[in-house]
Amino acid sequence: MEIFLAIAEAGSFTRAAGRLHVAQPSLSYAIRTLETELGSALFERHGRGVRLTTAGDALVRPAQRALRALSLAGVAVRATSEGGFGRIAIAGNTMWTMEPMVGVISSFRRLQPAVRVVVADAGSRSETLEQVRSGAVDFGLVDGALPGGALAGQLIAEPELVAILPPWASQVPAVTSVTDLVPAGLISTPPGTALRTLLDDALEQAGAAPEVAIETAHVVTVVPLVLAGAGVALLPEGMAADAAAKGARLARLDPPTRVTVSLVWRRDRLSEVAQQFLLVAEGAGRP
Protein backbone atom coordinates (compact mmCIF):
# COMPACT_ATOMS: atom_id res chain seq x y z
CA MET A 1 0.00 0.00 0.00
CA GLU A 2 2.81 2.43 0.88
CA ILE A 3 4.59 1.72 -2.40
CA PHE A 4 1.35 2.05 -4.37
CA LEU A 5 0.55 5.44 -2.81
CA ALA A 6 4.13 6.70 -3.33
CA ILE A 7 3.95 5.87 -7.05
CA ALA A 8 0.48 7.41 -7.36
CA GLU A 9 1.72 10.64 -5.78
CA ALA A 10 5.04 10.78 -7.68
CA GLY A 11 3.57 9.77 -11.04
CA SER A 12 6.69 7.72 -11.71
CA PHE A 13 8.24 4.44 -10.53
CA THR A 14 11.69 6.06 -10.66
CA ARG A 15 10.74 9.08 -8.53
CA ALA A 16 8.86 6.88 -6.05
CA ALA A 17 11.87 4.57 -5.73
CA GLY A 18 14.04 7.58 -4.92
CA ARG A 19 11.65 8.85 -2.27
CA LEU A 20 11.32 5.46 -0.61
CA HIS A 21 15.05 4.59 -1.01
CA VAL A 22 14.05 1.29 -2.60
CA ALA A 23 15.40 -0.24 -5.79
CA GLN A 24 13.02 0.27 -8.72
CA PRO A 25 12.79 -3.47 -9.57
CA SER A 26 11.50 -4.07 -6.03
CA LEU A 27 8.76 -1.49 -6.57
CA SER A 28 7.81 -3.03 -9.90
CA TYR A 29 7.64 -6.49 -8.34
CA ALA A 30 5.51 -5.23 -5.44
CA ILE A 31 3.01 -3.56 -7.80
CA ARG A 32 2.83 -6.62 -10.08
CA THR A 33 2.11 -8.77 -7.01
CA LEU A 34 -0.60 -6.35 -5.83
CA GLU A 35 -2.17 -6.21 -9.29
CA THR A 36 -2.21 -10.02 -9.43
CA GLU A 37 -3.92 -10.22 -6.03
CA LEU A 38 -6.51 -7.62 -7.00
CA GLY A 39 -6.97 -8.91 -10.53
CA SER A 40 -6.62 -5.52 -12.17
CA ALA A 41 -3.94 -3.15 -13.49
CA LEU A 42 -3.38 -0.15 -11.21
CA PHE A 43 -1.16 2.01 -13.44
CA GLU A 44 -0.82 2.75 -17.13
CA ARG A 45 2.24 4.28 -18.72
CA HIS A 46 2.16 7.65 -20.44
CA GLY A 47 5.13 9.61 -21.70
CA ARG A 48 7.90 9.31 -19.12
CA GLY A 49 5.66 8.41 -16.20
CA VAL A 50 2.54 6.54 -15.13
CA ARG A 51 -1.01 7.44 -14.17
CA LEU A 52 -3.68 5.61 -12.24
CA THR A 53 -6.17 3.39 -14.01
CA THR A 54 -9.80 3.47 -12.92
CA ALA A 55 -9.06 0.55 -10.61
CA GLY A 56 -5.99 2.33 -9.23
CA ASP A 57 -7.95 5.48 -8.55
CA ALA A 58 -10.53 3.42 -6.64
CA LEU A 59 -7.76 1.97 -4.47
CA VAL A 60 -6.25 5.29 -3.29
CA ARG A 61 -8.59 6.04 -0.39
CA PRO A 62 -8.85 2.45 0.90
CA ALA A 63 -5.03 2.31 0.80
CA GLN A 64 -4.80 5.54 2.80
CA ARG A 65 -7.27 4.20 5.36
CA ALA A 66 -5.33 0.94 5.62
CA LEU A 67 -2.07 2.77 6.36
CA ARG A 68 -3.75 5.00 8.94
CA ALA A 69 -5.26 1.95 10.63
CA LEU A 70 -1.84 0.29 10.77
CA SER A 71 -0.27 3.43 12.23
CA LEU A 72 -2.98 3.67 14.88
CA ALA A 73 -2.43 0.01 15.72
CA GLY A 74 1.22 0.86 16.28
CA VAL A 75 0.20 3.69 18.62
CA ALA A 76 -1.90 1.27 20.67
CA VAL A 77 0.93 -1.28 20.90
CA ARG A 78 3.52 1.34 21.88
CA ALA A 79 1.17 2.60 24.57
CA THR A 80 1.28 -0.78 26.31
CA SER A 81 5.08 -1.01 26.21
CA GLU A 82 5.97 2.64 26.88
CA GLY A 83 3.36 3.40 29.54
CA GLY A 84 1.76 6.09 27.37
CA PHE A 85 2.86 8.88 29.68
CA GLY A 86 2.91 12.42 28.38
CA ARG A 87 0.86 15.56 27.98
CA ILE A 88 -1.00 17.22 25.11
CA ALA A 89 -2.09 20.87 25.29
CA ILE A 90 -4.69 22.24 22.87
CA ALA A 91 -5.93 25.83 22.55
CA GLY A 92 -9.11 26.92 20.84
CA ASN A 93 -12.42 28.64 21.37
CA THR A 94 -15.10 26.71 23.22
CA MET A 95 -17.12 26.02 20.07
CA TRP A 96 -14.39 24.10 18.24
CA THR A 97 -13.14 22.32 21.37
CA MET A 98 -16.66 20.91 21.64
CA GLU A 99 -17.03 20.05 17.96
CA PRO A 100 -15.08 18.33 16.50
CA MET A 101 -12.39 18.00 19.19
CA VAL A 102 -14.42 16.02 21.73
CA GLY A 103 -14.54 13.02 19.39
CA VAL A 104 -10.83 13.26 18.56
CA ILE A 105 -9.82 13.42 22.23
CA SER A 106 -12.07 10.47 23.03
CA SER A 107 -10.48 8.36 20.28
CA PHE A 108 -6.98 9.34 21.40
CA ARG A 109 -7.71 8.52 25.05
CA ARG A 110 -8.75 5.01 24.11
CA LEU A 111 -5.30 4.53 22.56
CA GLN A 112 -3.31 6.46 25.18
CA PRO A 113 -5.25 6.42 28.47
CA ALA A 114 -2.23 7.55 30.52
CA VAL A 115 -1.64 10.75 28.55
CA ARG A 116 -2.92 13.94 30.17
CA VAL A 117 -4.91 16.16 27.78
CA VAL A 118 -5.25 19.86 28.61
CA VAL A 119 -7.70 22.04 26.64
CA ALA A 120 -7.13 25.78 27.06
CA ASP A 121 -9.63 28.47 26.09
CA ALA A 122 -8.66 31.03 23.46
CA GLY A 123 -11.28 33.57 22.55
CA SER A 124 -10.01 34.47 19.07
CA ARG A 125 -8.14 32.97 16.14
CA SER A 126 -5.18 35.32 16.65
CA GLU A 127 -4.91 34.37 20.32
CA THR A 128 -4.96 30.68 19.42
CA LEU A 129 -2.22 31.07 16.80
CA GLU A 130 -0.07 33.06 19.21
CA GLN A 131 -0.28 30.31 21.83
CA VAL A 132 0.84 27.78 19.22
CA ARG A 133 3.68 29.96 17.92
CA SER A 134 4.98 30.65 21.42
CA GLY A 135 5.02 26.95 22.30
CA ALA A 136 2.49 27.41 25.12
CA VAL A 137 0.38 24.63 23.56
CA ASP A 138 1.03 21.75 21.17
CA PHE A 139 -2.00 22.38 18.95
CA GLY A 140 -4.48 25.10 18.11
CA LEU A 141 -7.99 24.86 16.67
CA VAL A 142 -8.89 27.54 14.13
CA ASP A 143 -11.44 28.13 11.42
CA GLY A 144 -10.77 29.69 8.05
CA ALA A 145 -7.62 29.56 5.94
CA LEU A 146 -4.60 27.67 7.21
CA PRO A 147 -1.71 29.83 8.42
CA GLY A 148 1.66 29.55 6.73
CA GLY A 149 5.24 30.11 7.78
CA ALA A 150 6.33 28.22 10.88
CA LEU A 151 2.89 26.66 11.38
CA ALA A 152 1.51 23.57 9.68
CA GLY A 153 -2.15 22.59 9.60
CA GLN A 154 -4.61 19.81 8.88
CA LEU A 155 -8.32 20.17 8.05
CA ILE A 156 -10.30 18.05 10.50
CA ALA A 157 -13.94 19.13 9.98
CA GLU A 158 -16.25 21.13 7.72
CA PRO A 159 -19.43 21.62 9.77
CA GLU A 160 -22.45 23.34 8.29
CA LEU A 161 -23.97 26.33 10.11
CA VAL A 162 -27.58 25.76 11.18
CA ALA A 163 -30.15 28.16 12.59
CA ILE A 164 -31.57 27.18 16.00
CA LEU A 165 -34.99 28.53 16.95
CA PRO A 166 -37.34 28.39 19.95
CA PRO A 167 -39.58 25.28 19.99
CA TRP A 168 -42.68 27.29 19.08
CA ALA A 169 -41.12 29.31 16.21
CA SER A 170 -43.27 27.68 13.56
CA GLN A 171 -43.37 30.84 11.42
CA VAL A 172 -39.77 30.26 10.31
CA PRO A 173 -39.54 27.76 7.41
CA ALA A 174 -37.29 24.69 7.48
CA VAL A 175 -34.98 26.45 5.00
CA THR A 176 -34.35 30.14 5.57
CA SER A 177 -31.86 32.92 4.94
CA VAL A 178 -29.77 34.59 7.61
CA THR A 179 -31.42 37.96 6.86
CA ASP A 180 -34.86 36.48 7.60
CA LEU A 181 -33.60 35.60 11.09
CA VAL A 182 -32.68 39.19 12.03
CA PRO A 183 -36.23 40.29 13.06
CA ALA A 184 -36.40 37.38 15.53
CA GLY A 185 -33.34 38.73 17.38
CA LEU A 186 -29.91 37.22 16.83
CA ILE A 187 -27.98 35.81 19.79
CA SER A 188 -24.20 35.56 19.56
CA THR A 189 -20.89 36.02 21.33
CA PRO A 190 -18.78 39.25 21.42
CA PRO A 191 -16.96 40.63 18.36
CA GLY A 192 -13.72 38.81 17.60
CA THR A 193 -14.95 35.42 18.84
CA ALA A 194 -15.39 32.54 16.40
CA LEU A 195 -19.18 32.35 16.56
CA ARG A 196 -19.61 36.11 16.15
CA THR A 197 -17.18 36.22 13.23
CA LEU A 198 -19.12 33.46 11.48
CA LEU A 199 -22.40 35.30 12.02
CA ASP A 200 -21.02 38.65 10.87
CA ASP A 201 -19.54 37.02 7.75
CA ALA A 202 -22.86 35.35 6.93
CA LEU A 203 -24.72 38.66 7.35
CA GLU A 204 -22.17 40.52 5.25
CA GLN A 205 -22.38 37.96 2.43
CA ALA A 206 -26.17 38.34 2.51
CA GLY A 207 -25.84 42.11 2.28
CA ALA A 208 -27.23 42.73 5.77
CA ALA A 209 -25.80 44.88 8.54
CA PRO A 210 -24.22 42.96 11.44
CA GLU A 211 -26.97 43.23 14.04
CA VAL A 212 -27.07 41.26 17.31
CA ALA A 213 -29.92 41.48 19.81
CA ILE A 214 -28.20 39.59 22.64
CA GLU A 215 -24.44 39.37 23.13
CA THR A 216 -23.18 36.77 25.60
CA ALA A 217 -19.56 36.05 26.51
CA HIS A 218 -20.44 32.40 27.20
CA VAL A 219 -21.24 30.28 24.15
CA VAL A 220 -22.84 27.64 26.43
CA THR A 221 -25.63 30.13 27.24
CA VAL A 222 -26.66 30.55 23.59
CA VAL A 223 -28.87 27.45 23.48
CA PRO A 224 -30.65 28.14 26.82
CA LEU A 225 -31.40 31.68 25.64
CA VAL A 226 -32.91 30.35 22.41
CA LEU A 227 -34.95 27.72 24.27
CA ALA A 228 -36.27 30.46 26.56
CA GLY A 229 -37.48 32.39 23.50
CA ALA A 230 -34.99 35.26 23.77
CA GLY A 231 -34.01 34.99 20.10
CA VAL A 232 -32.38 32.77 17.47
CA ALA A 233 -28.79 31.82 16.72
CA LEU A 234 -26.45 30.14 14.28
CA LEU A 235 -24.41 27.14 15.46
CA PRO A 236 -22.34 24.36 13.82
CA GLU A 237 -24.48 21.33 13.01
CA GLY A 238 -23.15 19.18 15.87
CA MET A 239 -24.04 21.74 18.51
CA ALA A 240 -27.31 22.42 16.70
CA ALA A 241 -28.20 18.72 16.93
CA ASP A 242 -27.66 18.85 20.70
CA ALA A 243 -29.94 21.91 20.84
CA ALA A 244 -32.61 20.03 18.87
CA ALA A 245 -32.42 17.17 21.37
CA LYS A 246 -33.30 19.73 24.06
CA GLY A 247 -36.31 20.96 22.12
CA ALA A 248 -35.02 23.65 19.76
CA ARG A 249 -36.24 23.86 16.17
CA LEU A 250 -33.64 23.77 13.42
CA ALA A 251 -33.61 25.49 10.04
CA ARG A 252 -31.08 25.10 7.23
CA LEU A 253 -29.58 28.20 5.67
CA ASP A 254 -30.05 29.13 2.04
CA PRO A 255 -27.46 29.35 0.67
CA PRO A 256 -25.75 26.67 2.81
CA THR A 257 -22.73 27.87 4.81
CA ARG A 258 -19.89 25.57 5.81
CA VAL A 259 -16.90 26.28 8.04
CA THR A 260 -13.44 24.76 7.73
CA VAL A 261 -11.93 23.80 11.10
CA SER A 262 -8.25 22.91 11.24
CA LEU A 263 -5.68 21.71 13.75
CA VAL A 264 -2.45 23.75 13.60
CA TRP A 265 0.98 23.14 15.14
CA ARG A 266 4.56 24.32 14.95
CA ARG A 267 6.54 22.50 12.27
CA ASP A 268 9.59 22.25 14.52
CA ARG A 269 7.78 21.23 17.71
CA LEU A 270 5.93 17.92 17.93
CA SER A 271 6.71 15.35 20.61
CA GLU A 272 6.18 11.66 19.97
CA VAL A 273 2.87 11.70 21.84
CA ALA A 274 1.80 14.84 19.94
CA GLN A 275 2.54 13.07 16.65
CA GLN A 276 0.31 10.23 17.79
CA PHE A 277 -2.48 12.70 18.60
CA LEU A 278 -2.09 14.29 15.16
CA LEU A 279 -2.45 10.89 13.53
CA VAL A 280 -5.77 10.33 15.31
CA ALA A 281 -6.97 13.84 14.37
CA GLU A 282 -6.02 13.34 10.70
CA GLY A 283 -7.99 10.10 10.66
CA ALA A 284 -11.03 11.92 12.03
CA GLY A 285 -10.87 14.49 9.25
CA ARG A 286 -10.61 12.08 6.32
CA PRO A 287 -13.11 9.65 4.77
Give a brief description.
With 287 residues, this protein is of the alpha/beta class. It has helices at 2-10, 13-20, 24-38, 54-82, 94-98, 101-111, 125-134, 178-181, 194-205, 222-227, 237-245, 272-284; strands at residues 43-46, 49-52, 86-92, 115-121, 139-143, 151-157, 161-165, 175-176, 187-188, 214-215, 233-236, 249-253, 261-266.
Number of β-strand runs:
13
Mean pLDDT: 86
Q: Could you give me the name of the CATH homologous superfamily of the largest domain?
A: Periplasmic binding protein-like II
**Major sheet size, sense and barrel closure:** 5 strands, mixed
Which architecture of the largest domain per CATH? 3-Layer(aba) Sandwich
Q: How large, in whole angstroms, is the Cα Rg?
A: 23 Å
What name does the CATH topology of the largest domain carry? D-Maltodextrin-Binding Protein, domain 2
Shape: elongated
Contiguous runs where pLDDT drops below 50 for at least 5 residues: none
Strand content: 15-25%
Question: How do the strands line up in the largest sheet?
Answer: 4-3-5-13-6
H and E string: HHHEEHEHHEHEEEEHEHEHEHEEH
Relative helix content? 40-55%
The tally of domains stands at: 3
Q: How far is the N terminus from the C terminus?
A: 17 Å
> Count the helices. How many?
12
Secondary-structure class: alpha/beta
